[in-house]
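Okay, can you check this protein?
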Amino acid sequence: MINTSKKLNGKIALITGASRGIGRAIAQRFAAEGATVIVTGRSLDQSVVLPGTLAETVALITQAGGRAIALAADLEKPDERDTLVARAADAAGGLDILVNNAGLAEYSRVETMPLSMFERTLDHYLRTPFTLSQAAIPLMRARGAGWILNLSSVTALAPIRPYNVFDSDGGATVYAAVKAAVSRFTQGLAAELAADNIAVNSVAPSTAIRTPGAAQYIPAAYPTEAVEYLAETALALCHLPAKERTGLVTHSLHFPLACQLPVYSLDGRELLPPPTLPEVAHPHIVPSGA
C-alpha cells in the first residue's frame, strides 16, 4: 500500500544531524510526505567522524522524488550554530519544523568523566536545542504555526532495580540526565508556545536503534528496533495543530501502537507491520506519551 497523504506538503523542515542514522531517516520520511527538508551536519560531502554525509542524504531524497537542501554546520562552533536557523530559512524561504536530533553520545562514569566531555554533552543535547528553538520561534510565529521535535532517549527514565551492568558500569548517567532535561524542556516549551500554535514534542527509541553513532554502546545480542518506527512517530508529532498534539514525550514503538498509526517505509511506499514491544522495553514508558 502506497501512502499518498502528503501530510507535510508545502512545509519546510530543518533537521540536524541528518548525515546518517535517525536524522537521515526523519529527513527521508518528511520528504516523502511533501516537505522541503534542510539537512545539516558537519560537512557536505566528506565524513568527519562517522560514515555518512549530507550529500548522500540529499541524493537518497532526490532519487525518491523529494526535495532536500544541504547546509553544513558544526554545532560545536557557536558562530555556525547560532546562525543556522536564519541560514536555513533564507535557503528555503521560511521554516515550519525544527527537529533537534544532532549529537554524539559520549559515555563515562561520573567519577572519571573529563569536564570537557560533560560540557560537550550539555552543549550537544541541551544548549543546541535551546539555541535553535529560540531562533526558530519567531519564524514559526510569523507563519501562524510550527513544530519543534526534540530527540530524547529511553535512558532518561530511571534505571530499574536491581541495576543491570549497563546502569552500573555503562557510563550513561550524565547523558541520561541531560536527556531527562530535554524531556522537561519539551514539556515546558510546549506550555509556553501553545497559544502561538507551535507544537513541541519529543521522541525516543523504545529500546535502541543501531546507528553509526550508537552502535559502539549496544551489545550485539540486544534486540534493537528499526528506525522506520521512530521516523513515523516523528511525522505524527509534526503535522497536527498544537491544540491537538503538544507537550508529549513519546517512544517509537509504543506510540504507533497506542495511537494505531500505520507505519510506512522511509519513502512512504510500503506499509510495514505494526511494531512489537520486546521484553527489554522499559516498564515505565507511557505508551501514548507522557
About this structure: The first helix runs from residue 21 to 32. The mean pLDDT is 94. The domain at 12-259 is CATH 3.40.50.720 (Rossmann fold). DSSP finds eight helices and seven strands in the chain.
